[in-house]
Here is the input.
Amino acid sequence: MNSTVTASRTEYCAAEKRLRKRYSLEANEHFFDVPALSLKGRALEVGSGEPLLMVHGGGGVSVQWVPLIAEITGRRIIAVDRPACGLSDPFNHRGVNIRDHAVGFLSGALDYFDIPSTDVVANSMGGLWSLWLSIDQPARVKSLALLGCPALMLDTSAPFVMRLLGVRGPNKLMWSTQKPSAEYMKKLHVMMGHKSEALENHAPEYWDAVYLAGTSSGYRDGWLTLLESVTTLTGGKKQYQMNEQQLSKVQTPTFLVWCDNDSFGGSEVEERSQAAITGSQLKVIPGGHLPWLDDTQRVSELVNSWLSSK
Here is the structure.
């Protein structure tokens, strides 16, 4: 995306509100301090009932969950913008212990909402962050539903184009050659394993909000420095990869919803992940890296069923 094209906060907020209106979602917006990280986070709160924390992926934003949130029943949903994403504070990840940062942010969000323990639905980098939280602070996570291959799962990494964006210096030049648009975002999702026709089923308001979030102030440096911190040209950095030994420490009931065309990790990784997490369940369905974009109804049925069983 061209760094000279920057959406104002007003533009993004307006796009997000249009998307929520399209799905008839009433949401309370919260800005909360995370003292351990010296930053302010932002979250959307939707519905009532038992809490459910939703954590988006690496280059994502909380409103990517909107099609799925609209189908989740009987829950008080807290959908966070991770640092440098959406309307949370900008953040430079260089020189930061990403695991400590992740656990600090998620636990800080739960502290703000006075939630001692919660179920979690997460995707990609959000999945990795949630696994770390469940290992480091197990009492805070009742269950995990991980939609799509979590980032750095076992010996996986990001697709090569994303790893290129993790090379400090050239990544800014590479970024500057991209022109932000809804159509460009769809192309990125095709790269992640989604069918174009499935993506076209989602409202224009969805793609407008997602692309404008990616042009907001601070997004570029946050996303590129995160990639610099966790990836190399050849794969994920070993200190952040979720290996079998780490996965064996997960005592949280875990549901893996994986798609058969996920460009971040295929069938071998699915099976190894399930085997490594004691008592975990695995469901493989058609689609790409963000399963609810391919079949919102099917994924919502799986998530609702999982949550009702807890």
